[in-house]
Amino acid sequence: MSKWIDNKTVIITGASSGIGKMLAERLMKEHNCKVIGVARSEKKMFNFIEELGDYAKLFSYKLFDVSSYDNWQIFHDWLVENGIKPDVLINNAGVL
After folding, report:
1. Which of 13, 17, 20, 75 satisfies CB 3.0 to 4.6 Å to 93 for a cystine?
2. What is the CATH code for 3-90?
C-alpha cells in the first residue's frame, strides 16, 4: 500500500475475520492507522484485540448488523458525538 494511507482513520466492516481482519491488522501495523472495526461477533473482536498486542491501542470496534439502515444511523451518530471523522471506509462485510 502507498503512503497516502499512513495515520488515517479507517472503518472496516467485517473486521472480525478473513480479509477484513487481515486488512485491519496490516493498516495498523504497517501504516499506523486507527481502525474502527464493525462486526457482529464480540467474541471474535475480543480475540482479535488479544492478538494485536501493542497495536490494540489503535483499534476500536462497534457491534452491529450492517444490513440494517437504523444501525448505520446509530453508528453515524456515535461517530459525530465522539468527533471521529473517518478518512476511509472499507465495505468488506458479507451480506446475503
Report:
1. 13
2. 3.40.50.720
